[in-house]
Write a structure and sequence with these properties.
By secondary structure, this protein is an alpha/beta fold. Helices cover 31% and strands 13% of the residues. It is built from five helices and five strands, in the order αβαβαββαβα. The radius of gyration is 18 Å and the shape is globular.
């Protein structure tokens, strides 16, 4: 008789369902290590959006990120980017839903988007460093 607990009470999905679920998840998200490797190349193939406030962005952000708070993601702010531009959003970390809010807004605007799981917390946990924004006029 199998042991029942919080893990085993609900059986695991069958392999076909698990395959579909986990394969699909890569269409929605990426991780910090993959973002770092792509950013280290000459052509990462996406725009990394830090969707936190300008003040938090200035305190430390992923190198190469563009600051666009999720509440300010509107069509006019994206006009300089071709429609097929892939955006990758991130926020403070797993305790924050700002990246998902930003991704939702981008999807509502018909833009390709993925979320960088882990956010700033994950970035630092992976051993990557943040950069500070330069003060205005420098």
């Amino acid at each position: 008789m199998p042991t029942l607990n919080a893990v085993t009470t609900i059986p695991a999905a069958d392999s076909a369902a698990a395959l579909a679920h986990f394969a699909a998840s890569f269409g929605f998200e990426t991780d910090c290590a993959d973002v770092a490797a792509a950013l280290a190349s000459d052509t990462p193939g996406f725009v990394l959006l830090d969707v936190r406030s300008p003040a938090l962005f200035a305190q430390g952000h992923v190198p190469g990120a563009v600051n666009l708070p999720h509440g300010k993601i509107v069509a006019s702010r994206l006009a300089d980017y071709p429609l097929e531009t892939l955006f990758v959003t991130y926020c403070a970390g797993p305790h924050c839903n700002g990246a998902a809010r930003g991704a939702l807004r981008l999807a509502q605007l018909g833009r390709p988007v993925k979320l960088m799981i882990g956010g700033v917390t994950g970035w630092q946990d992976e051993g990557f460093t943040l950069v500070r924004a330069e003060p205005a006029g420098h």
